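FORM 7B: Structural annotation worksheet

SECTION A. Query
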Amino acid sequence: MSHSRRIDGLWVGYWVGDNKNPSAALDRVETALGLIKLYDPVRYRHLVRDLERIWVTLLPASRAQFRRALKMCVLDERYVLAETTQPEQIASTIVHEATHARLIGCGIGYQPEMRARVEAACFRRQRVFAARLPNGDQAREEAERRLTGYPSEFWTDASFDDRHEQGMVDGLRYLGASERLIRAALRLHALLRSSGNLVKRPNRRLRK
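SECTION B. Predicted structure
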């Protein structure tokens, strides 16, 4: 159901409704990939081996995720399409998620006790990459803030679930859902969470 194109072997897609133009999102991702390819070709070669797909869609509680089963970097459409988001930031975010892919490929997991160290490694990689860009100051400063800006409890399962709940509300409002539907979704979310059946997503990411 996604509009897509191939870029150096990567499948790049955008899941959209009938009233949206997919070209804007796909063009922005292609521009970001072009920046990685031009200014960090070694990183780019690793990226196209470590990832198979980049998908732009609506994420409930993060600007990006790496989904291991599909070797896929997922980007939130609000982040990709925002006028305030520079191509350099999108490129830096893709580098971050590709670093997760590379670490997992090396056998490094994402257990709660390891998350802070894993995320720090990914933020450092973002910072190094952004320093190579002529207009990378904003992306570099953002990576530096995130490298030191989170307490250890930020990476716990409970914190992930709290952000997922709020992100779900924000996403439903973005889609134009009624407050009645949002309240029903929150009740269902609370029921699943209290019963212990809420599916954990260990590769979730924060949204700015």
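SECTION C. Observations
The CA atoms of residues 190 and 196 lie 10 Å apart. Residues 3-152 form one domain.

SECTION D. Sign-off
Analyst initials: ____
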